Amino acid sequence: MSNSSSLTQFLLLAFADRRELQLLHFWLFLGISLAALLANGLILSAVACDHHLHTPMGFFLLNLSLTDLGCICTTVPKAMHNSLWDTTTISYMGCAAQAFFFLFFVSAEFSLLTIMCYDRYVAICKPLHYGTLLGSTACAHMAAAAWTTVFLNALLHIANTFSLPLCHGNALGQFFCETPHILKLSCSHSGYLREIGLTVVSACLVFGCFIFIVFSYVQIFRAVLRIPSQQGRHKAFSTCLPHLAVVSLFVSTGLFTYLKPPSISSPSFDLLVSILYSVVPPALNPLIYSLRNQELKDALKKMMTGWFSEAKMFLFSAP
Question: Other CB atoms closer than 10 Å to residue 72's CB: what's the count?
Fold first, then answer.
């Protein structure tokens, strides 16, 4: 028996027992993290440097890339460290920080996806009011409200979770620190009920955002199908499909994780599922947007062409 005052570290779930597989996981995570850092970094640079992307969607895409980078940098480095050095430990404060930042960035991503859905709705269903409803001030206020709300939400959850007495050991059934797995170690009935109350409030907010996204896309598709020209419908769908794909990936992996039947649960399967919702979406989001967004592809091509030209000039001008 132990309690939270005496705990100094937690034990994370190992990817494998064999050293060869641990190193394989390290290299796979290294490749995924480098690809995600490069892709999101390119999007951040393109949006910041190209004035054609200084639009509400570009602004929210920049914020989304920041959340993707945050998600990757919160979970993957520690997992890589543990695989490389054949350990499973994480300090108590490190676990609290990891749990906070993961919840913060995941919540921020869903909030931003909801706001981006509103952007697509106004652009297609109310194009004459787009400049009024989504001006620079309105976009800044919506982004600030989203970041502030998810920060307070994450702070409340983590403060409550890590104030609970823990008396069921220190082994987490996850490769990173996550509040549901920490709650399983708690022996405080009142604290557990308090966390359930906070979770219900958060779930209601998430459900409200999900309903808003579904309702918005029903209206969007109805408006798109009324566009007489095929070219106009194709352009409208092209602006919506990347966002819809990212939302579907994020929601489907999250719902499957928390609603899967216990009968199909196992440590290895749970580990795979946790990677699907914590690592895969942040790594794939830049690819989805860069493949379908023509303005973003043009900006990336222009930026990389400029970089190559400058590098060539530097090389040939060097003595």
Answer: 24
**Helix (H) or strand (E) run with residue 268 in it:** helix 267-278
* Among 24-38, 44-58, 256-270, the range of highest mean pLDDT: 24-38
User: Going by C-beta distance under 8 Å and a sequence separation of 6 or more, which residues neighbour residue 234?
Assistant: none
Angle, helices 189-225 vs 136-161, to 10°: value is 150
Q: Please give the backbone phi and psi of residue 9, each rounded to the nearest 5 degrees, phi first.
A: -160, 165
Q: What is the rounded radius of gyration, in angstroms, for the C-alpha atoms of the chain?
A: 22
Contact 193, 147 (CB under 8 A): no
Q: Contact at 8 Å (CB) between 183 and 191?
A: no
Burial category of 289 from C-beta neighbours within 10 Å (exposed 0-12, middle 13-18, buried 19 and up): buried
- The per-residue pLDDT for range 123-147, each reduced to its tens digit, is 888 888 888 888 888 999 999 999 9
Residue pLDDT, tens place only, 239-292: 777 777 777 777 777 777 666 666 666 667 777 777 877 888 888 877 777 666
What share of the chain has pLDDT > 70, as a percent?
A: 85
Instruction: Tokens for 199, please give them.
Output: 């979770």
- The residue whose two tokens read 């690592």 is 279
CA triple 6-7-10, angle to 5 deg: 170
The number of residues in the chain equals 319
Instruction: Give the E-state strand segments of 37-189 in sequence order.
Output: 89-91
